[in-house]
Amino acid sequence: MLVREMNQQECESLLARVGRGRLACVRNNQPYIVPIYFAFEPGRLYGFATMGQKIEWLRLNPLVCVEADEILSHTEWQSVVVLGRYEEFRDVPEQLAERLQVQARLEQVNHLWWDTGFAAAQARGRFDRDMTLFYCIHIQEITGRRASSDPVEQG
Questions:
Q1: Could you count the other beta carbons within 10 Å of the beta carbon of residue 53?
Q2: Which of 48, 98, 110, 112, by CA, is between 20 and 30 Å from 119?
């Protein structure tokens, strides 16, 4: 297997294509990671959530890490890691334009953009539309790796 670094364009292409990954945050030196759906725009990832542990932690420490991957086999895969900063768009008139923009982008890339947040709220035994929010991860750094079969190993 050959592993190589992906360039910026390859990383962004994967993020735009897959639209799902895992978001990691930290509170009091304790990491926490959850699956998310997202919409990619250069420099940003957009998402939807309901109130819960993830949002509580992100409000305390907005520095995040997002991992997204595409795995075809043990020797054929791509993985991208994003380091960034969380920004929340609450349901207030001053942030209506941002919320509508995020919702429109999410609808373009995934018809189930709301599913993870809704399922999490159901698992907690509550769902209150007033507790829904949209957010943005401002990308500060992006890296990626790609694995492919090694023709020498196959020979």
A1: 13
A2: 98
Q: Which domain holds residue 79?
A: 2-154
Nearest residue to 49 via CA among 141, 134, 129: 134
Query: What is the dihedral sign for C-alpha 6, 9, 10, 15?
Result: positive
Q: What CATH number should be reported for the domain holding residue 32?
A: 2.30.110.10
Using CA atoms, how far apart are residues 107 and 84, in angstroms rounded to an integer? 23
What tokens were used for 18?
């897959």
- Reduced to 3 states (helix: H, G, I; strand: E, B; else coil), residue 26 is strand
pLDDT in tens, the chain (155 residues): 899 999 999 999 999 999 999 999 999 999 999 999 999 999 999 998 888 899 999 999 999 999 999 999 999 999 999 999 999 987 788 888 888 888 888 888 765 555 554 445 555 455 444 467 889 999 999 999 999 987 766 65
